[in-house]
Amino acid sequence: MEAPAGGHLLLALVGLSMTILLITALMGAAKQGGLLTEANFLTVSLILYGGATALYVAYAVTGTSRFVTFASLATWVGFAASTMAVAHRWAEAGRPPFANIYEMLLAFVWTLGALTLFVEKRYGVRVIGTVTLPLAVVSVLLMQVMPSGVHPLVPALQSVWLHIHVSLAMLSYAGCAISFALAMMFLVQDKMKTESFLAWTSGMIGAVYVGALATRFDPSGGLRVAAWDAAEGHQIFFAERTPLLVVIPSLGWLFLVVLLVVLAPLGLYLWSRTSERPEPVLDWANRMFFVGALLQIIACGVFLLRVKEGLYRSVQPTDVNNGLFPTHLSASPFLLAGAAGALFASLLYLMLSWRRSGLERMIPPSDTLDVLTYKTIGIAFPLLTLMIAAGAYWANQAWGSYWSWDPKETWALITWLVYAGYLHMRIARGWRGRRAAYFAIIGFAVVMFTFFGVTYLLPGMHAYA
Known about the structure:
By secondary structure, this protein is mainly α. The protein has a domain at 208-333. The protein is 72% helix and 5% strand. The chain has helices at 5-31, 38-62, 65-93, 101-123, 129-144, 160-189, 194-216, 251-274, 278-308, 333-354, 356-362, 366-399, 407-427, 433-457, and strands at 223-226, 228-229, 234-235, 237-239, 242-243, 245-248, 311-313, 324-326. It has a two-stranded antiparallel sheet. Strands 2-3 form a two-stranded antiparallel sheet. A two-stranded antiparallel ribbon has the order 4-5. Helix 6 (160-189) crosses helix 14 (433-457). It is globular, with a radius of gyration of 22 Å. The termini are far apart.
């Protein structure tokens, strides 16, 4: 399908926006005295992946083939920039970029970009970027606020098994992300009701805000975040492994309002199941979902502004600085990632609800997607297995024990069990279709909790990861 006049305008706007952002970023880099730096490569990657995401979404909404052609081109160039960032980091550190969560995200973004291009080219799933590239964009945004300095490896990480273990982890996690995208597309093509997507998306977003409030809500109505030492470039610690927390006034109440509004569609959906006239209830659910998306945008904006500027009172008693300390986005990367991820999920649902019929015409048949999901997990699962085995062998070399039930180890095992369950039910019980797709989606949710949630909520021996 050729691009209509409006399509040409959108292409021009996206292209102009990317060009202006790239020129601005490069001029700023030139003033600082260096162009070929890791930070600049990541900025280029972020701009191009962001532009590609917009074009993939435009293709999904309109079906105009020209959008996906330019989206693929932007993804290729963004992937090249990501490759240069990895290469620069590798050269600067003198080792593969696997030492901390910043470097793992760098490797994850590279692998996700490579697999997105492969699946699009090899299997013709041209809209897969609508799901995978937002993940890449959120990851690069998260890296922008994380400490990125190159430091010597701690003794436990000075092993070739670090490279093997983390390489396997990033490859398997990226494979799980691809299987998640394919499973979501399968549910769309398998005629899963739009209101079911509404309920699941509402519940997922609600879970993100429940997690934030359960761990960081202050009784005063503020939100607790870690204090930040700008001079040293790290969190301020009150005691060993205990960050000093400060309270941003009223932000907790705002997050609570967002939580109540984003859960309202789920409540209305449940009400519609027992109502004699479900259509008006579902209409209200969709209206509330749209309001919730707007509130999420406001909450993200307020969070960015309030965290970036200002001095806030500490939670723990201290006489230093009169009990007032600054914070920074680098001190709260997982809160930022959760809020940004929830907002992307909202936008994807709105795209589905507005243009489902057109989207279905662009997605491969459900049988094809079902088989591709199985093949992807069939590749990711052995990598997960080898990752755990390599980690156990490395742990025995470093600490004299193959397994210590560290939170990261435990959740890696849970991830493995979920995907083992998928393969068992598929091969032994012949599970196909929606049940298999649900397994793939739940598996990726567990992967994300293992990668991010455990680091944020359950730090242990893998605190650096």
